[in-house]
Specification:
Protein name: CRAL-TRIO domain-containing protein
Strand order of the largest sheet: 1-2-3-4-5
Structural class: alpha/beta
CATH topology: Phosphatidylinositol Transfer Protein Sec14p
Low-confidence stretches: 216-223
Organism: Glycine max (Soybean)
Pfam families: CRAL_TRIO
Distance between the termini: 10 Å
Radius of gyration: 18 Å
CATH class: Alpha Beta
Number of helices: 9
Number of strands: 5
Shape: globular
């Protein structure tokens, strides 16, 4: 797995993806990194598959990779390295189905970002999703799908035991039953991503100029 991941990074260069490359896919708030952590200090991603994307599957995957790289960049040395995925199924229907994107996402996460997923909360999935989930599970390793929890807002016990246990309800978006009615702010999010891009680029350029080929040599030494 390590050799394959190193080869993928050297060829795909995920660290080179910039905000301007993926900004269009981010506009509607279909996927974004929340501005709060869960109660264990883990980065939280909000995913809203019910919002249709006009982008190609490749563009959607590219944006996902950009978000993962950005999240990893922002993890401090004493912070929990795993992430929480909050998936809101409002508006989701079979028209949103894309087994290819699900398969590609699972492959990338499990092969190149192993153990990054700490918890996935499926919030209010419709009944029809159960059949889709049956098709998706074979693409996932058991240790991955065991981290998935289904939450139904019409079940107070389910909501209380999961959402309130893991998240600050004052900061959580209203579409997850929280008190935050502001939700996703594209302009503020774009500004933050551009600032992170600049910081990452400065560090990367500094390392490359002081130690040419440092990435390649380090990767090969670790194999």
């Amino acid at each position: 797995m390590l050799k394959g991941s190193i080869k993928w990074r050297l060829e795909f260069k995920p660290e080179k993806i910039q905000w301007d490359d993926v900004a269009q896919e981010a506009e509607r708030g279909r996927l974004y990194k929340a501005d709060y952590m869960d109660k264990q200090g883990r980065i939280v991603f909000v995913i809203r598959p019910g919002i249709q994307s006009a982008s190609s599957s490749c563009a959607q995957i590219k944006y996902l990779i950009y978000c993962l790289e950005n999240a990893i960049w922002n993890i401090s040395s004493n912070q929990e390295e795993q992430m929480v995925w909050l998936i809101d199924f409002q508006g989701w229907s079979t028209a949103c189905l894309s087994l290819k994107i699900v398969r590609d996402t699972a492959q990338i996460l499990q092969a190149h970002y192993p153990e990054r997923l700490g918890l996935a909360i499926f919030y209010n999935p419709p009944k029809v999703f159960e059949s889709f989930w049956t098709m998706v599970k074979p693409f996932l390793e058991p240790k991955t799908y065991k981290k998935v929890i289904f939450v139904y807002p019409d079940n107070p016990r389910s909501r209380r035991m999961v959402m309130e246990e893991h998240l600050d309800m004052d900061k959580l978006e209203s579409y997850f039953g929280g008190k935050n009615t502001v939700g996703f702010n594209y302009e503020a999010y774009a500004q933050k991503m551009k600032e992170d891009d600049k910081s990452m680029s400065d560090v990367f350029d500094s390392c490359c100029s002081s130690s040419p080929g440092f990435l390649s040599s380090e990767f090969h030494e670790s194999v």
